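Hey team,

Sharing the SDR family NAD(P)-dependent oxidoreductase run so nobody has to redo it. Sequence (259 residues) first:
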Amino acid sequence: MVKQIRNKTLWVTGASSGIGRALSLRLARHDNIVIASGRRYEALAELQKLCPERIRVLDCDVADDDAMAAVPERLEALTGHLDMVVACAGTCEYDDDLQLDGLSYRRVFDANFFGVVNTLRSALPLLGASPAPVFAALGSLSSVVPFPRAEAYGSSKAALDYFLGAVRADLCRTALKVVLIRPGFVRTPLTARNDFAMPFLMSAEQAAERIELGLCKGRNTIDFPRRLSWPLRFLGSCKALWFHLCVPKLTRIRTLRKH
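Structure output:
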């Protein structure tokens, strides 16, 4: 029998679409109370209709520091504790031709990195009320090796990887478990914009199943699919091979820009 998370109270960000939406619905159908967050209230309301007794809506933008200041109080109005938080909110912008647009980089870091910082800060008081709390966040296998065009996205996920590891180190004497989730390519509105082949592409529902299973098994890092994660982790440990064999086939830049 597949392991399931049951009878818990969870907060899932990025729940208006993609992996966050699929995970929220899956967990709600497994008899959990799910607080579903995202920027688009209408999308969250539609999600709530699919499981109205189990899904509670908290619309917020995790990248907005000012708006997130009110979230702890709003969370407390919905629940007295949190057993688990899964931070799925994020975005992706590619740096074509190495433009190094600072605004683009800031948008990506605001959502993918600082959004997780804001989420953890908002959730910590309620996680402290649970006997076995879990904080998980969505990274990416793109942080294992450096991909062309992914300077902003991959860097934000690499920063998240380090941040979660440091939080885990700081809280190692407490009950809080910190989990890094690193999926490969998942069919979502974000990846629908990709203009390149995505090997081992899976659905958001399949990703949600992998995430729940990994959380049930108590893993500190949840990488999937293995067919992609294992080769990337090998190449990450031997970057000379990655740069020699792979990146010349992936990069689109042939010459430096001239002023």
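The longest helix spans residues 102-127.

Ping me if you want the raw files.
A.
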